[in-house]
Specification:
Strand content of chain B: 5-15%
Number of domains of chain B: 1
Largest interface: A-B, 22 and 23 residues
Strand content of chain A: under 5%
Number of strands of chain B: 3
Order of helices and strands of chain A: HHH
CATH architecture of chain B: 2-Layer Sandwich
Mean pLDDT of chain B: 86
Mean pLDDT of chain A: 91
Shape of chain B: elongated
Largest sheet of chain A: none
Number of helices of chain A: 3
Structural class of chain A: mainly alpha
Shape of chain A: elongated
Helix content of chain B: 55-70%
CATH class of chain B: Alpha Beta
Order of helices and strands of chain B: HEEEHHHHHHHH
Number of helices of chain B: 9
Radius of gyration of chain B: 19 Å
CATH topology of chain B: Zincin-like
Low-confidence stretches of chain B: 232-240
Number of domains of chain A: 1
Oligomer: heterodimer
Low-confidence stretches of chain A: none
Distance between the termini of chain B: 13 Å
Number of strands of chain A: 0
CATH superfamily of chain B: Metalloproteases ("zincins"), catalytic domain
Chain lengths: 78, 240
Amino acid sequence: MFSEINYFYTSLKDWQKAMLFSFISYSIILFGLIVAITFILKDFKFLLVFGLSFAYMGTVIILMLISAKILKKRLVER
Amino acid sequence: MSSTEFTELHNMVDKLCTIFSVKRPQVHLFESSVPVIFTVGSKKKSHIIVSRRLLDLMEDGELEMVFARELARIKEGNVTQNTFVALVAGIIASFSTIALWMAMLTGFGQEDDPAPKFIRFVAMGIVMLPCSLIVYAGASDSILKADIGAVRIMGNNAVMSSALKRLHNDILLNSMEYFNPGHVHLYAMNPVKANSFFDIHLSLFDMKPSLSERLISINETNVVAGQDKIVRNRTNLTEV
C-alpha cells in the first residue's frame, strides 16, 4: 500500500505535487467552514454540509482542472 | 544609484538608449546575493533595478547585453502591464509570508520550526495557484522576444547566450534567497526555485521558455555580420 502511494507520489511532476497540496489546502478551508457552520448552528446539518461540500469541491475541482491545462502548457516540467 | 559611483554604467545605459531609441530609464541598485535585473514603471518613466551580485558577476559584454535586453523590453512597451501584474500577483503571493509571520507572532515557533512552516505551506497552497494563473494570464509573454530583440540590435548571439548561462548557473548554485513568485515574469532569469519540500508550490512559477529553448532561439537569430563591432565602437565601454 505504502509502496504504491510512494510510487504514485514520485511519478508526479513538481507542479502536479504542488497542485495536489493546493487541493489539500483548499480542503482544509472546507473543513474550517464545516466546523464554523456546525458551531454557529450548534447542530450538524447533514444536508447543508453535504450541499456545501458538493458545491465547494465541485468548483475547486473544475478550477483545478482548468489550471492544470494552462500550467501544462506554460511550465517547464521537472 | 549615484552618477559618480557608476559613471561607466550610466554611460553604457545612455549609449544603449541611443541605440534602442528609448527614453532613458532610471537605474537602481540593490544589495542581493542573487544576480537579478528587471524593469518596472509606466509608459512615462521606466526603472531598471539591478542587484549588486549581477554587476559583480557579469563581464563587460554580458552586462551590456543584459541591460540591452531590458531596453528591448521597454521598447516592446509592455512594462506597464507587467508592472501591474507583478503588483497584483505580488500582493496575493505575499499572503503566505504574512501567514508565516502571524504564526510566529502568535507563538507557534520560530521561522525554522515545523508549525509556522506548515502554516505557511498551507497558505501557499491556497494563494500560489491563483497567483500563478494571474501571472500567466496577465503578463506579456515577452522573454523570448526580449532575448531576440536585444540580440538583433546588439548583433552578438554568443554574448547573450553566455550571459544567460552565467545567470542560470549562479542562480542554480548559489541562490537561497526567497523572491516573491508574483514577480517571476519580470526577471531576465527566474530566481524563484524550490529549495525544499516546503517550497514545492514555487514550482508553479517555473515558466517556459527553459534556458535550452532560449539558447536555441538566440542561436537561430540572424544577426548582421559586423554589427557587433559597430555597436562596440559606438558604446566604447570601460570596466564598471
